[in-house]
Design brief:
Length: 265
């Protein structure tokens, strides 16, 4: 029991260090004062001010659209990649393919953003697409690293899959594509949905990569918030951060529930 107590004390300090500032930020988002250093009373005035801030609202809507598009692309690519890694055995080039899929998980975002910027510039010079940097390039960039996370979730889901169900469907005359569409995909759909939600959250949160590949008129919400913070904190940013924390927590909770817990491997 004493050993458990000795373990819980540093864990408690660690969680307090991580989550107490978030809790304080949420409390100060209801502060009636314009000052962010003193609490004078409860009020919803900064949530109303946030709603009237057109720049933040437009950036939030743009980020939501980009996140939805990039998460969908990442889910398609990541599901196919996870299926290939889990089912196709040791095919030629499997190690290189697995390394390419895992690279976005460990690659510094600065390197990823710079390399994607150079890629988009080269593609525009060679083929004329994409025409400049904007929401399209941000969505493509987010899909590239989101696919890696989706592949991890789907691959983990397929490891616990009962292959006898696929074998039974094949014995009954179903073609491979029909087996995948009618048996495999419905059974791994919770993992696929969890991957989509995870990719959506990562896209909504990204700042570094979007800063490299975005252009005029395509500033995402993290970029607008970062620019505002450099000029000084305002209480409406606390309100925005609180809403973001709640939304991200709900999305991640739903993703973990659908995926059966954190991905294993």
């Amino acid at each position: 029991m004493r050993r458990l107590g000795r373990l819980l004390v540093p864990l408690g300090f660690g969680f307090a260090f991580l989550y107490l500032p978030i809790l304080l930020m949420a409390v100060f988002s209801f502060n009636d004062s314009r000052l962010v250093t003193s609490f004078t009373g409860l009020s919803l005035r900064w949530y109303a001010a946030l709603w009237r801030n057109e720049a933040l609202v437009e950036a939030a809507l743009l980020s939501l659209r980009i996140a939805a598009v990039s998460a969908t692309m990442a889910t398609i690519l990541g599901t196919l990649a996870g299926f290939a890694l889990a089912r196709f055995g040791r095919f030629r080039g499997r190690g290189a393919f697995a390394g390419m899929m895992a690279a976005p998980l460990v690659m510094p975002e600065v390197i990823t953003g710079l390399s994607l910027l150079l890629l988009f510039v080269a593609l525009e010079q060679a083929f004329g697409f994409p025409a400049g940097r904007g929401a399209t390039t941000v969505a493509i960039a987010h899909a590239t690293f989101g696919a890696a996370y989706v592949a991890v979730v789907v691959q983990a889901r397929l490891r616990d899959f009962d292959m006898s169900l696929e074998e039974a469907a094949a014995d009954l005359g179903a073609r491979p594509w029909q087996v995948f569409r009618l048996v495999t995909l419905p059974l791994i759909l919770p993992g696929v949905a969890a991957g989509w939600l995870l990719a959506f959250t990562l896209s909504l949160d990204d700042l570094v990569i979007a800063s490299f590949v975005s252009g005029p008129g395509a500033s995402t919400l993290p970029m607008v918030v970062f620019s505002s913070v450099r000029l000084g904190l305002t209480p409406d940013l606390y309100a925005l951060a609180t809403i973001t924390v709640v939304v991200v927590a709900l999305v991640l909770g739903l993703a973990l529930r659908l995926g059966g817990g954190p991905p294993r491997g």
